[in-house]
Here is the input.
Amino acid sequence: MAGAAQTAAVSGMRLALELILFPGFAFCALAGMVLSWLDRKVTARVQWRVGPPLLQPVYDLVKLLGKETIVPRDAFVFLAAPLIGLAGVTLVGLLVGQATLRPDLQTWGDLIAVAYLLTMLPLGTIIGAAASRNPLASLGASREMKLVLAYELPFILALAVAVIKADYALSLGEILKVQWRDGIAASSLSGTLALLIAVLVTQAKLGLVPFDMAEAETEIMGGTTIEYSGAPLAVIKLTKMMLLFVMPALVATLFLGGLRLDAGAYGVGMGALKVLALAVVATLIRNTNPRVRIDQALRFFWGPVAVLGFVAVVCATLGY
Amino acid sequence: MSMPLTGFADRFKTRALAWEEKRARRLYVEIRPSDLLETANYLYKDCGCRFVIATATDIVTAITVLYHFAHDASGVMVNIRVTLDRDKPAVESLTQLFVGAEWIEREMWELLGITFIHHPGLKHLLLPDDWPNGVHPLRQDFRQDELPPPCPGRGAEENR
Amino acid sequence: MGITLNALTRSLSVFHLAASPCNNCDIEILDCLTPKYDLERFGIQLIGSIRHADALLVTGSVNRKAAERLKLLYEQAPKPCVVIAIGGCACSGIMFRDNYNFAGPVDRLVPVDIYIPGCPPKPEAMIAGVAKLIAKVRGEKA
Here is the structure.
């Protein structure tokens, strides 16, 4: 009894440490800040500018902690909403990290958990925007709702392809192991199509141009985040930075073989390169496209992208 | 005068009070205020001119309004002048022909006091809504010291 | 000086408030963000919502309608927030000072931290002004 309780306590502590430090909150936050700096630097270089220094995301967040927080009348929901998103993204980072660290652990269904947890961020955004009591925020919230409706379908289809290619395994660790054994998912036709869909869905999930209509700066003055200031705004910004790391990490795990620890330094380097490449691809798409309207985004995701997704699923089932 | 507007010259030259072809593509026509709607309608619908803007001035003896129409195909600008009585300046509103005249007529009303008959709603455009009635800043007899002061400043105490 | 205030000088989110300008100063402000001057390398970015603002860039000789809105926007900006008056009109009203619709200049309505005169001020002048402001906030010699 005492032995079992002790093991439970130790594993509980390990879980807590992993959640807070590595590969959970602290690691995702740090990686997210670096990638967000990279995003701004690449954007600046594409525009023939110089761009901000490396510590810029740190300055942005620390500055926000020193600003006063102005809240609408019923402040509880308004203040709690950003934390929902932060929790969701942190947990996804933790799950992807745990699958990378211990792929042999039988964690059935954590892909399903990831899919659900990733919807916590738009949920938090919408709730917070609705609690803002601002007409432009509700406009942003309605656009965010429609965008989520749009991209969830192709996203699930892409996940389905990853699952099928891994012999119908619903565990991230299993998907990784199958890819290490048989070759990365993207080496097959269905895998490539699914990777393409995943890249487009990542762009929408991250709220980057061309799908940033929910938080369109010049059009609806910040949309869903219009009323946020101070520490809650810092939480929102941090969550977005973390997602910039977590989404590419997830896509790399599902379609590019992730980070292979047992290949030593080479594996770690290749894994990091995959995440970096996906982040840079998102930035380049951001820099070369205009913002689209929400109805155009809906038609895009439910039209060509969903069709591509169905084709990919069929190909995957047939073995291509 | 350029080809498309010869129709305009044929119909309105005799009725105009003054007709000046100042340059190759600048025509200044003075008409009676009662002829304004018909003239503007002909220019807009039949000649295909675009209404650019309207300008008004208080020349001490009267108030004149200049309507500027552009014939984009040939580059001709037709400027229609109407002279209004200084005490009760009133003229037909061009919003009956095209919506685009609405705001400029509001501006002419609030700054010079010209009444536009059949205008959908003459309310303030540039000046605040609590501007005193009957005070029109661009008139020659406007007296600035009769105005209420603007919104209060931050006063002696610091705001931070 | 506090760590957050130091971070504020390295990451200024500016809100562009055009209080009835002729728009020349606004064009010059946007010039500062173009590749030739690139203010983003100092951490300065344009933001859309007043609640995200660290600096109010006020241009224009404030007219009666804009005066109420200027005061309202200043109240809505979370403190600490600096106010930068850009252009001769915002600094003193220059030739519009005796106009019937003049309700400014900006420092009559909100406290101003830095004045950047010019009609319009060149981007170099604006950058010099921002550098002086940052030095002032940090307590250094300009």
In short: The CA atoms of residues 39 and 159 of chain B lie 57 Å apart. Confidence is low (pLDDT under 50) at residues 156-160 of chain B. The beta strands of chain B are 18-23, 26-31, 50-59, 62-71, 76-84, 90-92, 115-117. The interface with chain C takes residues 126-128, 137, 142, 144, 147, 150-151, 153-154, 158-160 of chain B (CB under 8 Å).
